Every structure is written in structure tokens, then in C-alpha cells.
Amino acid sequence: VCVMVVDGQAGVGKGDGFVYRRQVAPLSVPRLCAVNKVDRMTHRQIVEQLAAAQALGEFEEILPVSAKAGTGLEELRGLIAARLPEGPALFPPEEITDQSIEHRVGELIREQAILATREEVPHSIAVVLESMEPPEDDGGVTRIHATVLVERDSQKGIVIGKGGEMLKRIGSQARAELEALLGTRVYLELRVKVQKEWQRDDNALTRLGF
């Protein structure tokens, strides 16, 4: 089963269309679409975004949900479970993801950048992991260098913040998450770079793993 999650509050857009065409449409499995953040939307906005999601392509079900408030999640679980065939476990029980550690590191940094900037830089943040050096010995430090990409100069200023305070906050929060993930102390160096309209650039989206 494939569940495509779109941000209803931000609005279904070209980036969602790209994801559908490249990653969802080729799949020969049941496809569902969850329009998220309905707790922050009016009834009219929900109806409009459900229609926009329907225009993306073919889905067996499209439903409004709120991950934060829990709205629609039980129904979504039921729709997923009803479509899953019975069979043996595909992964060991202790394996919680099939994503690489590098991908997870980048996503943790991106998550903290989005949380810190809230609605000021919606969907315009991506993270490129430039390097990750493991500790040389027990008790050592994992050294991580990453670039936070935004689309406009104004967004760069928001992510950096006055005197670099916002970037320091993002780095501090991300470092705590990374240390829990990696089980080592972490040295994290972040820089911010503008890549104009990267969400509308198919080549950029592919390079960034979207």
C-alpha cells in the first residue's frame, strides 16, 4: 500500500504533482492520499484541497487527516490494514526503517529547521549532508557537515536569524536528536545556501531525493 501525504494547509502544489508522477504513479499497489493539517483549515479549504489532491492522479481513497489532533487516523489505519495481504515479516523486528543512516541524519536536521522556523519557511527547506565522519575511537565525536537549502534570500535570513541565533538553535536541537540516534557525541556544522526555486526544478528534486 502507498500512502501519499500532502500538506492541506500549505496547499497541494507542483511539488506534490512531481512526487506523484515520479514515485506514486509507477507503483502497482493500492494508493491512498491523506490530506494533512485539517485542524488548521476551514471546511471550505478542506473541500478545496481534497479536490486538489484528487486532481493529482488515481487514488482508491482520499481522506482528510490531522496527525497532530488525531483526526482521521483511525480510519486511515483501517484503510491500510484492509489492503495489506497476510504474509511473513519482511524485516527483522528490531529494524525500524529501511532508510540509510545518512538520509535519517539529513531528515532530522530538516525537521528541526522546520520546527524552529514554523510557518515562516513552509516546504522551502531541504538539507544536503556534505560529510559525516564517525568517531575514531570509543567516546569520540561524530563530525557532521550539512547545508540547509532555501529558495529565497529572505528565507535565508529567517533560517540564520539575528546574529545567527536561529541557526544556532536549529543546530543545538538537531544535535540532541542526532546524538540519540547515533549513540555518540556529535559536532554539527550547518551553513545556509539559497538555491532558487528548487522545488520547481525536477533535476534539483531528484538530487535532493524527493
Quaternary status of these chains? single chain
For the biggest sheet, the summary is: 3 strands, parallel
H/E series: EHEHEHHEEHHEH
Helical proportion, percent range:
25-40%
- Ends apart, CA distance between termini: 19 Å
What's the alpha carbon Rg, rounded to whole Å?
19 Å
Total count of helical runs of at least 4 residues: 7
Percent range for β-strand residues: 15-25%
Number of strands: 6
What spatial form do the alpha-carbon principal axes imply?
globular
Low-confidence stretches: none
Strand order of the largest sheet: 1-2-3
Quickly give the structural class: alpha/beta
Mean pLDDT: 90
Write the layout of secondary structure elements.
Elements: E1 2-7, H1 14-24, E2 31-36, H2 43-54, E3 61-64, H3 73-83, H4 101-117, E4 126-133, E5 141-150, H5 153-160, H6 165-182, E6 185-194, H7 202-207
Parallel strand pairs: 1-2, 2-3, 5-6
Antiparallel strand pairs: 4-5
Helix pairs in contact: 4-6
